[in-house]
Each structure stands twice: as C-alpha cells, then as structure tokens.
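Researcher: Good morning. I'm working through a list of sequences from a screen, and I'd like to move beyond sequence-only analysis. For each chain I'm collecting a predicted structure so we can compare shapes side by side. This is the next one on the list. No need for commentary yet; just the structure.
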Amino acid sequence: MVSSSGAPAMKWAVPLTTSHVVQLLRAERDVQKAFLIFEAASGEHSSGYRHDHSTFSFMSTRFAAAGLPRSAEALLNRALSELGDAPAEPSFLPVIRAYSRARLPLDALRLFRRMTSEFLLPPSHRSYNAVLSVLVASRHLSLAKTLFDEMKLRRIPFTAATFNILIKALCFSSGALETAVRIFRRMPDRDCPPDACTYNTLIDGLCRHGRAHDARKMFDEMQQRGCSPTVVTFTSLMDGLCRSGLFENALQLFDDMHERGIKPNVVTYTSLIDGLCRGGRSAEAMGLLESMGRQGCSPNVITYSALIDGLCGQGRLGEALEVFDKMRLQGRKPDAGLYCKIIKILCESKRYQEAANYLDEMALSGVVPNRLTWGLHVRWHNMVIRGLCGTRGVTIRAFQAYRSARKRGISVEPETYGALVDYCCREGDADKAMSIVDGMVVDGCFPDSNAWCSILAVLWEGRKVREAAELVWEELLCGDADHAVSQGM
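Model: Good morning. Structure tokens for this chain:
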C-alpha cells in the first residue's frame, strides 16, 4: 500500500502529531529512512495530520547534517509552498553551513539571497555571519566585503563573531594586518570585547606572515586581559615560532602547555614535528612521535609525512623507512605523495630494486596519484626503470617495472626506452628488446640508431642474421613509410 505522497503507507500506533513525528525522525539514524517516515506522515491528511514548520525544519536540518544541502533546500521550498509562509531564519542556517562543508560557497550565498528576496525574511547578524564565514573560508573576499558593507548600510550591528570573520579576512594579506589590528583594538568600543577566537585568529595571521614576535606579545596580552589560551592558540604560536627558527621558544611553549593542563592534539604535535624537521632537528621530532603514543594521541598521515620528509632530507633513510613501516602497521594508509618521497630517496641512494617494490606496493594498495602528484609519479617511475637498467642481473625486474608502467598508463620517456633496449641487449635478451621496440612504436617513439645497433649486435651474436635483417628491414620500411606520410601531410 502506498500513500498519496508516493511513500509506503505506515500504520501509526497513536493519532499523529507534529511532536510525535519529530520524535520518530530523531530516533531514526538513517537520513533516507527518516525521510520515508516524513513522507509517510505527509500522506495522513485524511486523518487530520499536516506537517508544520517544526517537522519541515527538523527534516531539513537532518539533510544538512548528512551533507545533502540541496535536499535540505528543497524541503525549505516545499515548506513555503505547502504552508503558505516562510520557515524562520534559523531553518536556513544549517543549510548555509552544509553548503560550506560541501565546498559550495556560492550556493550558500545564493540561498542567503533567496531567503531575503523569495522567502521575504529580513536577515539578522546570524545569517550574515553564517554566509560571511563561508565566503571568507573559501577566499571569496570581494563578495565578503560587499556583505560587510551591506550590514553597515542596513545598520545590522556587528557581533564578536562578525569582527572575528572580518579580522580573519584581513589576515589573509600581510598588507592588511595592521588594519586587522586596528579593528581588534576598536572592538571594546563597540561593546564586543575580543574573545579567544579573536586572539587565535590574529595570532595565527601574525605567525603566517612571519611576525612571531608580535604574535608572542599578543599571546601575553591575551592572558593579561583574562582570556585563557586554548590548544589552538598554543598550536598557532608554536608553528609561527618554528617558522621563524625559534625552536627553543616553541619547545618551551610546548612544555608550558603541559604545565597548564592543556592537552596537545594531533595538529599541535604535527606542527611541532614539521617545524623541527624543517630546522634539521629530526631526532627531536622522532622523540615527539614517541611522546604522542604515550599521551594517547594517534599520529595521522600528515604527521608521518612531515617526519619522513624531514628524515629523508637529512639522509636518514633507514629511520624514514622504519617510520613508514610503523605507519602502515598502525593502519595508516600512505598517500601517493608520501610514496613518492620514499621512492625518491631510494633512487637517490641507488636502491632501485627497493624503489620498484614500493611502486608495486603502491599499485597493489590502490593508491592513485592525483593531478598534483601525477607528474612526480611519472618521473620516479622512469627513474626506477632506468636505475634498474644500470644494475646487472635484474633484466626481469626492469622489464616488469616497464610493463607495470605501461599497464597503468604511465608515460615511458624516450630516454627510458633507450636504456631498456640497451640493457636487454647487453644481457643478451633479444626478445625483450624487440618487445620494448614494439612498445616504442605504439607510443610514437621511433628507436634511434643506437637502439638499432644494439639490437643488431645481440641478434648477430645469437646467429639469427637472416631473421634479424628481415625484422630490421620491416621496422625501417614501416618507419620510412610513416615518416613519408607525416612529411606529406
């Protein structure tokens, strides 16, 4: 049996009320099943039930929380259509934030504009702050400025949250930092004393633009004004001190944090580990990694990547590989960038067979390079193959690495093809050499005279003179014909 709304009909134990429907929606964890309940209730008009703004708003919020902002917005539209008046402003805020989480800032702005133009709701500081936060986080600063100006024109008072968003926008540019500080200083005059979020934003902005000393002064002022630093405050300042080479100050601040009973999180540890590694102090960074485990804070891929990068940069390959293995044992899956770092340092150490093993492991683990790491992936694949070609007795491994690259659509460079042909010929494997030549021709990379000389030499030594001549003439004739066609075109 199906209800008039198209949803399966349900038998209700008691006469339906909106509060009862909200309880049922709250109890159902699966958002799609919750929507089925909502739709089933929609079909109970004959029993006198009708959704109101509380049920529409609750279901819309559920969709927003589940990362389905378009479905949430559709329910807001439906509420206006079915109830004849608009949902209240708070119903729009979760949907605006859901668009932000979905990285759709312009959709968040579009919904905000619809709220005022189609739903005819006057915006308050709450909706302005919600959409401003989205625009600033996504660096749509010119649009954000338009909204700030609009707030002033409408005489909507700025709250502490509005000032925090404005200061964050100004902190993106080093040239606007002084303006951010001036606005910060004027906040008490507008009955908006700075809070921890304000200080954190300003300290982070100063640190990111190399003004760690000023950030430290702001940190001290924060405490003098009775505003307690948070884990975010300490993390931002430690990162800034490390970037300025003030490692002892950063470590002292880390100890200070412990003494105050503020527990470092994974971002804190990662920032400090990265800073120490950049400063060539990877031994201390290793100690911090061990400390994380003792404190019950699990390192993430970024933590391991920072440490491995630092160890590799200092030539401590053995320790880098140990950390890499430890990472996998703890169930952390390395990404393509981290594999590339390991493969790079192995190639630089001329440990090509191990590098080839990591390339295979990467493929078997289903790790796929993204558009940023693809170029590095191609580069190191070719370097591994050429490196194997310079190692005696590993013809099969070099050929396997070559076949694996082709199978995965990785471009084989002309220099790599030449090294493979020469290597196979030196190892006396004419069949593999000719197979590689076939691959070259398919890729539009015609063998040069050195490659042909190598092939002829190995075939001659194998007493296959007539067969060699026929194969060479066939390839040369095909090549000349293709060349003539291309010249004619």
